[in-house]
Amino acid sequence: MKDEFIELYTGIYKDLYRYALYILGNREDAEDAVSETVVDAYAGFERLRDKGAFRSWIFKILSVKCKRKLKGYINRDSELDEQVDTLVFKEAEDVAGKVDVQNAFARLDDRERQILALSVIAGYEGDEVSKLMHMNHNTVRTVKSRALEKMRKMLL
Questions:
Q1: Number of domains composing the chain
Q2: Domain carrying residue 99
Q3: For residues 75-107, b (16+ Cβ closer than 10 Å) or e, as one string?
Q4: Residues 81, 119, 9, CA angle at the centre, nearest 5°?
Q5: Which region, left, alpha or beta, applies to residue 15 given φ > 0 means left and ψ of -120 to 50 means alpha?
Q6: pLDDT in tens, 53-72
Q7: Residue pLDDT, tens place only, 19-61
Q8: How far apart, in whole angstroms, are the C-alpha atoms of residue 65 and residue 49?
């Protein structure tokens, strides 16, 4: 069991971290969310009947962890603004376009960021995103399209 979990996790750990980072906008919180997710996933791994569903299962756990952290941000808005600013300045050492994309992504609302992160960063198809987020497939497609258009306008 342990070896199988490690093998499956090894194939997606970077995607988990990228997803959490883009949703939360904070390296430490992203690392915490992924760590908590791995602990919970490992504890429940025996109950996962279809190991082929591991990727969507663990992303669903991570999605819940990220949502909880986002709710916690409401109480610490000013601290979050400082953390996002710090992240943006750190990333500014990289390519300027990357910072622009991150800023545009950060300006989207939570639902838009989550849908884009699941589809663009984590690589889920629209129907998979709709299942993970408990939304209608057409709604997911519309939100994704509008979010991408918002980002295009911000980047022009």
A1: 1
A2: 2-155
A3: eeeeebeebbeebeeeeeeeeeeebeebebbee
A4: 90
A5: alpha
A6: 898 899 889 988 888 887 77
A7: 888 888 888 999 999 999 999 999 999 988 888 889 889 988 9
A8: 22
